[in-house]
Design a protein that fits this description.
Elements lengths: L2 E12 L2 E13 L4 E5 L6 H8 L7 E6 L7 E2 L5 H11 E4 L11 H12 L5 H10 L15 H13 L5 E5 L7 H18 L2 E5 L3 H4 L4 E4 L1
Parallel strand pairs: 3-8, 3-9, 6-7, 7-8
Antiparallel strand pairs: 1-2, 1-4, 4-5
Helix pairs in contact: 3-4, 3-5, 5-6
């Protein structure tokens, strides 16, 4: 088991009232499993990924995380230092709008997690992944000089550079045309499988749904 949710909920304040976006969610995600999260816009897919990645606080229930060789812990109970370590070292995140740092080259963007986690021994592997993803000739380009498909492939390389246990992907093909969507979905699965990582992806894409081990409908 990689992630276990028990009666998880998240609310947002809307004027003078609270609005629950997620309520009583309970399910588990196995180690190295790929799970697609689906549902209509506004149902809480992005909110769920942000809860599981530690970017939002949990308002009800518990989320327990367990990695091989480590003691299980609850996201809603860890201190700020351990939460930062989880977000920086244990997970990778692929965003719909790429979120590459505009002042860094493709190479610098990809290597950033390696530098932040001080896992310098992964540097060559991260550079090799850039080549695997067909980006070697764009390695010194800045994000604004890259196509959407190239930016998303760079984002995948960055998310996996530090060998995280879990990859979260929020609509990773949502900003791409059909051809690039298929390419990016193929490459994402290829690289996640090679890394033996757990994948949780929010999506509307048939190209991704066909590849997932399991689908969770919100």
């Amino acid at each position: 088991m990689a992630i276990q949710l028990d009666n998880v909920g998240k609310r947002f304040t809307d004027g003078n009232s609270d609005r629950w976006v997620l309520e009583n969610l309970s399910f588990s995600i196995a180690e190295a499993e790929s799970v697609a999260v689906i549902g209509p816009s506004g149902c809480g897919k992005t909110t769920l990924l942000n809860l599981l990645s530690g970017q939002l606080a949990i308002d009800a229930g518990t989320v327990q995380v367990c990695f091989p060789g480590k003691a299980a812990f609850r996201l809603n109970e860890v201190n700020a230092k351990d939460l930062l370590h989880y977000r920086r070292s244990d997970i990778g995140f692929v965003y719909q709008f790429f979120n590459l740092i505009p002042t860094l080259t493709l190479k610098e963007n990809v290597l950033l997690p390696v530098e932040l986690t001080k896992r310098k021994h992964l540097r060559e592997q991260a550079l090799s992944r850039i080549a695997t993803l067909g980006l070697n000739d764009r390695i010194d380009a800045f994000p604004e000089e890259l196509s959407g498909g190239e930016q998303q492939r760079a984002a995948i390389a960055r998310a996996l550079a530090h060998e995280p246990h879990i990859i979260f992907a929020d609509e990773p093909t949502g900003n791409l045309d059909a051809d690039n969507s298929k390419i990016v979905a193929d490459l994402l699965w290829q690289e996640v499988t090679k890394s033996n990582a757990t994948l949780v992806v929010a999506t509307h894409s048939d190209a991704i749904l066909r590849r997932a081990n399991r689908v969770i409908d919100l």
